[in-house]
Amino acid sequence: MPVQKIKRGYRKTRYILYKETLVDYKEHFWSFLGSFVGIGILAYIQSIHFSGNDAVYLIGSFGASSVLVYGIIQSPFSQPRNLIGGHVISAFIGVTVHKLAPDIIWIAAPLAVSFAIIFMQITKTLHPPGGATALIAVIGSDKIKDLGYMYVLSPVLVGVLILFLTALVFNNMTSSRSYPSHSTYHKHYHKIRKRLARK
């Protein structure tokens, strides 16, 4: 009996490794194009509104989100609820913690990340880059800290919506890719597309 379990586990492991190491050039092309356009739009907004090294729109957690929403589009962490909710909740937590403990970074940084994780779990919006969004509110540049709760709306909400809308376009351009992966979302998305095509 234990030998059969080991063999079954070994076969599953081999299959997973095989699937993960397949090279799918079409998938890579759409991942590249989507992330390039999404981050490119944010970088363009950044270059128009801000000068120098003060990256306000280009917060680091958007790079990690791009990996999920353009590269691993079927992941539960990549879905719209998680992408948008995770960032917004985490940004709000990060700003709140910074306001309560602005000068004690060794307390504020871990508190922001830990509370962000807990609130994302409670609201079922777990999105790993959200932890970085909370942390950036505490350790970011003075320009970011000076935004206060505006940080939640812009750059976070605005940036996330740009990434999401770009993902909707580029992740649904071929029949092999479908985003969001939840059937309810996808059903509504295709209804909207059909209505627009008729007009």
| Strand content bin | under 5%
Number of strands: 0
Q: Radius of gyration, Cα only, in angstroms? A: 20 Å
Q: What's the end-to-end separation, in Å? A: 63 Å
Q: Count the helices. How many? A: 9
Which sequence of SSEs, written as H and E, runs from N to C?
HHHHHHHHH
**Globular, elongated, flat, extended or rod-shaped: what is the shape?**
globular
Tally of discrete structural domains: 1
Oligomer: single chain
Structural class: mainly alpha
Q: Residue-averaged pLDDT, rounded? A: 86
Largest sheet: none
The helix content, as a percent range, equals: over 70%
Poorly predicted spans: none
Structure description:
The chain has one domain (22-175). It has helices at 2-21, 25-49, 61-71, 80-100, 105-122, 129-139, 142-147, 150-170, 183-198. The chain has nine helices and no strands. By secondary structure, it is an all-alpha fold. It is globular.
Keywords:
transmembrane; about 0% strand; mainly alpha; about 200 residues; 9 helices; globular
Short description:
With 199 residues, the protein is mainly alpha-helical. The chain has one domain (22-175).
